[in-house]
Amino acid sequence: MEASSTSLKRLKFGKLKVVRRRLLQRYEHQPFISCLAGFYSCRWKRYQRRRTEPGKCCCKTRECVFFPLLVGAFCFSLVFLYMWGEAKNDYNNFDWYNYGNLGFWFLWSLVLLIVAAILFMYITLLLVLAMCLLAEGQQLYLHWSHKIGTFLVLGFSITALFILSVLWGDQWKTVRLSFQITAPYLHIGAITIMVLLSWPVALHAIRADKKVVQVIIVGPYLAILLFLFLIPLGMYSPCIREMGTLGPKPALIGHRGAPMLAPENTEMSFQKTIEHGGDGLETDVTISYDGVPFLMHDSTLRRTTNIKEVYPNDTAQNAALFSWDALEELNAGTWFLKDKPFSCMGSLSRADQNQAMNQSIYKLSNFLRLADSQNKLVIFDLYRPPEKHPYRNSWINRTLEVILSESGIRPHLVLWLENDMRSFVQSVAPGFQQTVGSKAPVEDLLMDNIVKLNLAYTEMSSEDIRKYAEANITTNLYVVNEPWLFSLAWCSGAHSVTTNAVHTLKNLSQPLFLMTPQQYNIMWILTDLTSVLLISLIFALHWWRERSFSCCAHDGGPMLESGTYNKFRTELSDMPAVLA
Long-range contact list for 301-309, CB < 8 A, 24+ apart? Predict the structure, then answer.
């Protein structure tokens, strides 16, 4: 008898649940919330969702534990995407590093950027859906597939940041430099996010039934907001300066010529630099086995020639161990059309393609004659030959012989960078502009007759540049390709930059993001005042709505949910019996 009674109750309860579901689906269509919950939780039906009761937590304990992981995945993916996006200036170095380890050329940098962007957009979408559900007073439940995706994003971002920090730690210096340009705009973006977050924060804070809960919700929010309001007080950017204080535009020195337009270190590459108005030419010098200085950056010929076809058994041999006759047999241009070493390369004309395909290895003497004929400065890294090379101990003498006797270049056009035997070089070629590749006290530089510093852009400091300039020592920064980085170098007072993108930077008439302190103060104050007004209005709106709903409930009026009237009370206790 008891068993039949229990079965009857279960039957009644099951039918009540069916009725409840049908009523919810029929009379409470909420397409916006259905889409939010569907994409976030895969709960498309109304009866599958639960509202957050006033004063209660927005999700169950397990979801409360997982939500910080979602926020953490967003933060780490954002940091990685920003870091890698700002590293675009050095993508070619990253791809060259991978080429040295893998043995084939591929644009790994671009692939990594695309993956980072996709993962960031995915995790951002999940976080936006969560914020919207909280703003609608819905309980959070992240579907298991999205939880797996969140762990993947978090793991990928942390691993990528760790590996890049170990292998390429200087990129964090690039990130710090980028803040000098982007900080004013990142500040506006952060304030905008805080304004959007004020909606769910206000909703749950005002609905909380305990003061302690309200403080826990609102306290951190207001602390972060106050920090963002005041952070511009400690912000510095050399591009925020008074009118008339900006120095002249830095001179442009083509890094291995114009390697985005032609094969690097070839005659065509240097001609392209000259055509686009470059002020100087940079290259790398190696000495052949029979004493002919030629232009080659890598220690082997594998990347920038067709040595695999001509000398397949010697691909790993040092470039300096080949005779000049053997080097002349190689093509130095076809690889450029095949590998496309830069992701931002434009398409070449048919004439340029034909010219690139017929490039050969360039002799130092011909390079110097070209620079002299166009009145261009030259700077080069001089590589010492390997052991057992005939010119192992006379490499500098042989290079000087070519510069002074064979090329005929005017000495003042040569920026001499090599530090070995500097005193001897000064004695035989006093007209060279002595250049050093590291910072040193001004007194030491003047004692060595140094007139120019050649520094990596990560060592950029407007204070140091100004200090050296007062002693008539100019500063060249390398390798600067991106307009934002060139703008920063310009605002910092650099006198010249070595770049792969002469054709792009030549068109900049003024630094990007240049503004006066007055303009920035107006932007800062207007942003803060507008955000305070909007946040205050949002909190006031939620306070008024909750007060109105509370009054309606006490007056015996119809219950409200999300600001709309329920057409039916859908709790099981309010349903009529469906069985006799």
Answer: 301/327, 301/330, 303/96, 303/99, 303/105, 303/335, 304/263, 304/264, 304/265, 304/332, 304/335, 305/330, 305/331, 305/332, 305/335, 305/361, 306/330, 306/331, 306/334, 306/335
Comparison of pLDDT for 352 and 554, the residue scoring more: 352
What confidence tens digit (pLDDT) does each residue in 172-217 have? 999 999 999 999 999 999 999 999 989 888 887 887 777 888 888 8
Question: Comparing C-alpha atoms, which of 250, 242, 186 is closest to residue 486?
Answer: 250
| Nearest by Cα to 27 from 570, 571, 580, 567 | 567
Strand partners, 281: 254, 378
- 39 close to 51: Cβ distance less than 8 angstroms: no
The conformation of residue 138, written as its DSSP 8-state character, comes to B
CA angle 298, 302, 306 (to 5 degrees): 125
The reported pTM is: 0.84
Query: Would you say 264 and 333 are in contact if contact means Cβ atoms under 8 Å apart?
Result: no
In angstroms, the CA 78 to CA 157 distance is 9
Tokens of 542: 């939620």
Axis-axis angle for helices 517-554, 211-230 (nearest 10): 170
